[in-house]
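Tip: read the tokens left to right.
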């Protein structure tokens, strides 16, 4: 039936006017294309409100001239929404930058859309506002100029920058494991051992325009920990009085870069240098002033981290001999100066030597030591060469501590001495060789006080000599005419097996074999370090040990014959 709506009915209708649009199943067939809650007849200005007999459904009907049918309103679509638990954002003391600050704009837009679809209600809106606030607060601020300077001059940044420079130099030079760290952080297997060819050939040349120019190389040493590292010491450059007098550069054969791996220096010319055995991060240097210096490649400093005092308890004369002997758990640094003083040091404390000794012959004649060597595996007995050309054996401890035996050796100062170091089925540790200003290299045995043989093929000062660490019968020597000689006594004792002259023929001051016996390094008077591949020339074979033993027997026999001939000529 049709009734005139009362004021209370109209108020109820206005209050719940949104129901028809909320539960509208389909638009009413009206010109407006929507659901009409009631219809007003403009001519009669009458409104009708009809209640359906089904109390669960509200039905509205408007009378019009077209006479419309009644429409039932119902739910058209049901969507189930799961509300996610509220995200708890926490921060650490190291950083206040949320992860959202590092996401790309595209990822943020996608997450915003997902949040809009999945979250509804005031809690979701509030959480969005909080996330936005956290992101805004976590945005990094620009440092002030004072803060920038503090960062640039901080120790952490300087170490990072120096390390990064080294890595970039490797990366620019070649494709290899450029992130390897020689300070001991990386202990994985080292790749790329150098492989020598079949002849003596130049492999690498190291020279730094700033640190090597006008400096003479005084000593060389290979790292026992990293076979590709080589340290060279240099004396002072008279053209640069404001530069440090002593320099030690660590070169790397593994990478093609031509700059030093490490640069160290001190105020006195460095005349001897070596990697500290059992301490892969430390380098020891002996100086012309007598001071012993210690460098550490873990420190960003180029100056020594420790040094000995210039006092009567330590050295006050040039130290041409530094050697670390012992074992991993018990080792000492042994140094000898030209005034004949030998000191034993602990690398943990260089303020005072643990023990010292005066090397004196016949209790009156100080020995001016220029070279020293320990036989393989021996920490007590050693041999030294002197300025007057004499060679001595000595001991650190025991009843005969000090100088033991004398060898009337050379006619000039002894420049180099090397004990036999190749280990094999026959023990040759009693053998050693010496070089001298008298243009000769001599072969010795600690069992005899006379030389077993004298090699006289050189025409200038012989500055250094060294046994091969792998081949029993091979040694290398260098002279003042820029010549490197390789002698294989199993093949010939009169002339070298192989020789090469460095370009420009500068004086070659030092020679050092790599531990693998495949490369030999030489240092010259122009500050250059040359690396030569020896190839098969120094590759040992199983029969070389027995053959060298027979060679020594022949050498002794020839020596005996020469002595007999000499004695026979004297009476006549």
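Filled-in amino acids:
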């Amino acid at each position: 039936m049709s009734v005139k709506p009362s004021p209370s009915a109209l108020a109820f209708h206005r209050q719940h006017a949104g129901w028809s649009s909320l539960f509208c199943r389909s638009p009413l067939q009206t010109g407006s294309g929507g659901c009409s809650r009631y219809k007003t007849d403009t001519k009669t200005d009458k409104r009708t409100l009809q209640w359906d007999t089904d109390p669960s459904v509200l039905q509205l009907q408007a009378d019009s001239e077209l006479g419309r049918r009644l429409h039932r309103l119902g739910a058209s679509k049901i969507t189930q929404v799961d509300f996610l638990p509220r995200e708890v954002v926490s921060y650490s003391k190291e950083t206040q930058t949320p992860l959202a600050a590092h996401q790309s704009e595209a990822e943020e837009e996608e997450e915003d859309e997902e949040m809009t679809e999945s979250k509804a209600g005031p809690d979701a809106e509030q959480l969005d506002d909080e996330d936005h606030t956290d992101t805004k607060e976590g945005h990094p601020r620009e440092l002030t100029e004072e803060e920038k300077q503090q960062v640039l001059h901080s120790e952490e940044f300087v170490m990072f920058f120096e390390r990064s420079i080294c890595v970039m130099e490797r990366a620019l030079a070649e494709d290899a494991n450029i992130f390897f760290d020689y300070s001991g952080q990386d202990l994985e297997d080292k790749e790329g051992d150098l492989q020598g060819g079949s002849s003596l050939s130049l492999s690498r040349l190291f020279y730094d325009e700033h640190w090597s120019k006008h400096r003479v190389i005084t000593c060389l040493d290979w790292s026992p920990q990293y076979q590709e590292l080589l340290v060279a010491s240099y004396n002072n450059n008279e053209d640069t009085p404001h530069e440090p007098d002593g320099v030690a550069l660590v070169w790397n054969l593994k990478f093609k870069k031509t700059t030093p791996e490490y640069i160290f220096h001190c105020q006195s010319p460095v005349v001897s240098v070596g990697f500290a055995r059992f301490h892969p991060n430390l380098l020891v240097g002996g100086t012309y002033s007598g001071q012993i210096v210690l460098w550490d490649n873990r420190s960003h400093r180029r100056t020594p981290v420790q040094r000995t005092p210039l006092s009567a308890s330590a050295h006050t004369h040039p130290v041409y001999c530094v050697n670390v002997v012992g074992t991993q758990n018990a080792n000492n640094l042994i140094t000898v100066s030209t005034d004949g003083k030998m000191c034993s040091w602990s690398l943990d404390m260089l303020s005072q030597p643990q023990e010292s000794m005066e090397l004196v012959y016949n209790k009156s004649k100080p020995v001016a030591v220029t070279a020293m060597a320990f036989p393989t595996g021996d920490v007590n007995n050693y041999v030294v060469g002197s300025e007057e050309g004499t060679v001595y054996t000595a001991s650190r401890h025991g009843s005969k501590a000090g100088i033991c035996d004398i060898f009337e050796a050379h006619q000039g100062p002894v420049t180099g001495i090397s004990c036999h170091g190749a280990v094999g089925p026959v023990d040759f540790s009693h053998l050693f060789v010496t070089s001298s200003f008298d243009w000769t290299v001599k072969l010795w045995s600690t069992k005899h006080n006379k030389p077993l043989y004298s090699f006289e093929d050189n025409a200038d000062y012989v500055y250094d000599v060294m046994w091969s660490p792998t081949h029993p019968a091979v040694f290398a020597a260098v002279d003042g005419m820029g010549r490197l000689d390789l002698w294989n006594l199993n093949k010939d004792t009169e002339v070298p097996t192989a020789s090469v002259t460095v370009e420009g023929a500068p004086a070659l001051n030092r020679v050092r074999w790599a531990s693998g016996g495949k490369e030999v390094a030489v240092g010259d008077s122009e500050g250059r370090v040359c690396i030569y591949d020896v190839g098969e020339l120094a590759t040992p074979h199983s029969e070389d040990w027995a053959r060298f033993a027979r060679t020594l027997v022949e050498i002794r026999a020839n020596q005996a014959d020469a002595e007999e001939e000499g004695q026979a000529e004297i009476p006549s």
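The chain has a mean pLDDT of 79. The longest strand covers residues 319-326.
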